[in-house]
Amino acid sequence: SKKPRVAVLGAAGGIGQPLALLLKASPLIGELSLYDIVGTEGVAADLSHIDSSVKVSSATGAEKLSDALYGCDLVVIPAGVPRKPGMTRDDLFNINASIVRDLCAAVAKYCPQAWVAIISNPVNSTVPIAAEVFKRAGTYDPRKLLGVTKLDVLRANMFIAEAIGKAPESVSVPVIGGHAGVTILPLLSQATPRVDVSAEKAKALTERIQDAGTEVVKAKAGKGSATLSMAYAAAKFAESCVLALQGQAVVECAYVESHLTDLPFFASQVRLGPSGVEEYLPLGRFSELEAKGFEALKSELRGSIQKGIDFVRKG
Ligand code: APR
Known about the structure:
- It is a single chain.
- With 315 residues, the chain is of the alpha/beta class.
- The protein is built from ten helices and eleven strands.
- Helix 6 packs antiparallel against helix 7.
- The longest helix is centred in the last third of the chain and has 27 residues, at 288-314.
- This is Malate dehydrogenase.
């Protein structure tokens, strides 16, 4: 079948540029449509010299958004402002909430069938915002709206691989919940290979995974948040979406509308297929630490979801 057309909205940004590069280099992508409010042409021209068959086009500014979205199968959204030191993900809320709302309204209009993968933070709220926008437009398909939490999985894999002395490529840790602080819940007890560490060590590893974004914010000292690792995670996730679109079953962790818990949106392992999320894998048994973590994340995640919904309803 025809290789998919993938849009990156926010393509000139810190995440957008390396994401565009990785997608340009991907054998799975047919066309790459780059959109930003500034600087898109330069990124597209630069990438267009790479000898890959992926066809790159660019569009700049709201009046060109329709061109960017037309015919897209997958829309990846890293548009927004990044977190600066001292800023929590929620400080970004108002700016990024408006950006995601407006971009998703355009998706509903110009490529209503497309899958949408959201990176713009706070993901715990921006995914419910997108859902609300699509509902209003009458285009909502919960199976095709995905919050990208794969960086949390990569971090969990990496940190645990280091802790148990295994190659990171051989480690796989499900991460559930949300995409900020304590809402990020790595399930060490369900890791492959088995993670045999003390309760104390498990707690420390969990906390490092939950705070990993801040490690990068601090190290970048005022220049932004994770971009390269986020782009890598998003590119891998986009490739999984593209494989699924073309009929291959793939399992990924993603933040989606879900009925696995009493929270309306929840990140968990999902099986993706041609129509989007086709199966929500059971959460499995929690360790004592994980059960506590699950209880602890509920109120924050519920609040972030409601904040997103209210932003669209009351805004
Ligand atoms: N439409 C499209 N692009 C936009 C819009 C918009 N309405 N508003 C801003 N952008 C673009 C900016 O022009 C910029 O190129 O989004 C890009 C964001 O890039 P950076 O400022 O470098 O931010 P980045 O580090 O990439 O993070 C972006 O992802 O992880 C999240 O918290 C992070 O929400 C933030 C987002």
